[in-house]
Amino acid sequence: MTQTIFLIEDEKSLSETLSRFLRDKGYSVETAYSGVEAAEKLPLVKPDIILLDIVLPEKSGIDFLKEAQKEGSEYAKIPVIVLTNLQGNEESFQKLGLRIALYLIKANTSLEDLHKKIKETLGNNSQL
After folding, report:
1. In 3-state terms, what secondary structure has residue 128?
2. Residue 33 — φ and ψ, nearest 5°?
């Protein structure tokens, strides 16, 4: 069964590059370009993993995640990899009680490294 990645990234050229790369690796990829669009699409996408930028129009990645992971939400257990250029913001997620699998800096993460981290995260999640 093909695993689905929900890519939430407002920079369209980066989103297209990541989507193409991940599809070539065998994943199904759904995209959203804003936090509001992501919140609307989440119930339809039913992803295996979420790649989330923090700085998004209309609703930040943190606000999207607060909504998605609220108590009792069926989406709270979906692993989330934050993919951002904001360094040192990882503690914000912990302080807010938000669960993330990884916090990666875009500029320091190659496509192959990202793919490796996705595989590791999905592998770890499947053991839960």
Report:
1. coil
2. -110, 0
Residue 84 CB neighbours (<10 A): 19
Q: How far does CA 88 lie from the centroid of its chain?
A: 18
pLDDT at site 95:
83
Residue 110, judged by CB atoms within 10 A of its CB (0-12, 13-18, 19+), counts as exposed
Report how far residue 28's alpha carbon sits from residue 13's, in angstroms, rounded to the nearest whole number. Answer: 18
* pTM attached to this predicted model: 0.90
Handedness of CA 51, 28, 16, 115 (dihedral sign): positive
Residue 4, helix vs strand vs coil: strand
Render pLDDT for 13-52 as a digit per residue (tens, 0 to 9). 999 999 999 999 999 999 999 999 999 999 999 999 999 9
Pick the CATH number of 4-109 from 3.40.50.300, 2.40.30.60, 1.10.287.3610, 3.40.50.2300: 3.40.50.2300
